[in-house]
Amino acid sequence: MQKMKPLERILSLFVTPAQLMKNIKAHPSSLVPFLVCAAIGLASVQLAIKYSEIQTRRLSYASIERYGVDVFNLIAVDDEDDEAPQQISLITRAATVGGAAVSYPVAAFLSAAGLYVLTKIARGKELRFGQYFSMYMHLMIIIAAGDAAAAALGVALDTSLNAASLAAVFMPLGGNSSTAYNILSSVTVFNVWITILSIIGIKIINDFSRLKSIIVGAFAFAFSVAVSAVSLGMSFIMFDILDRFRFF
User: Fold this and answer.
1) Rounded to an integer, what distance in angstroms lies between the CA atom of residue 220 and that of residue 7?
2) Which of 118, 185, 194, 223 could form a cystine bridge with 139, CB 3.0-4.6 A?
3) Do residues 177 and 237 make contact, with C-beta atoms less than 8 angstroms apart?
4) pLDDT computed for residue 70 by the predictor
5) What is the DSSP string of 121-134?
6) CA distances from 55 to 50, 95, 124, 152, 176 (A)
7) What is the reported pTM?
């Protein structure tokens, strides 16, 4: 099997994912999807910054309602001081740009490591970590596009709600202080999509049966949703502990 050309790899992700997975098994490569993810991330930096500001503002409102104090903005900034806002803005931009460059390969690495362990437990044979990393790096293209779309909708509608998540359907008025909201926010059209594609990849790379591939893929999906939900609610979990000891 010949190695797919860059454009062919990107198109096959959406048109013929099974062919892409077969090619990844024979020729694991990650440079092209990494460059695509970085390009999408950098192109949507301004949207990401504005969306992050909206999310922080919503978190501040929720913390005032829950604790009676804005725990996300405890350090007041003097409006007459021009340097402080500029420094904060530069730090935010630098962090956003850096995140756009490294967040997707880091996510691909962690996902690949987790799936590698799962398939080893499921007695997968002759698999290489590089195959899983290449698979997830390609799938991160969908996640990057989804993140950009969510940020664009969030900025347009002035909301921190992810319009592609189950939270938009079942708990549109919820917040990150709610466990149910965090779980629903962690289930999006895009991560369901890449789970389906990862199941195809698991089957092809490991020569698993369809049922075995679905079980491994479903377990990986459930674990990723749990991790995402905990990370979304971690701030409030910590602040609840502090509030219990009357730090606020």
Assistant:
1) 29
2) 194
3) no
4) 72
5) HTT--S--HHHHHH
6) 9, 16, 41, 13, 10
7) 0.84
CA 124 to chain centre: 26
Mean pLDDT over residues 47-58, rounded? 84
Cα-based angle 18, 23, 27 (whole degrees, multiple of 5) = 155
C-alpha 194/C-alpha 209 separation (Å) is 19
Dump pLDDT digits (tens) for 53-73: 888 888 777 777 777 777 666
Spatial contact of 166 and 187, defined as CB atoms under 8 Å apart: yes
Distances (CA, A) of 241 to 33, 65, 67: 41, 16, 12
Which residues have C-beta within 8 Å of that of residue 220, sequence separation ≥ 6? 111, 114, 115, 118, 195, 198
Domains of the chain, residue spans = 20-244
Identify the burial level of 193 via C-beta atoms within 10 angstroms of its C-beta, where 0-12 means exposed, 13-18 middle and 19 or more buried.
middle
> What gap in Å lies between CA 53 and CA 75, rounded to an integer?
16
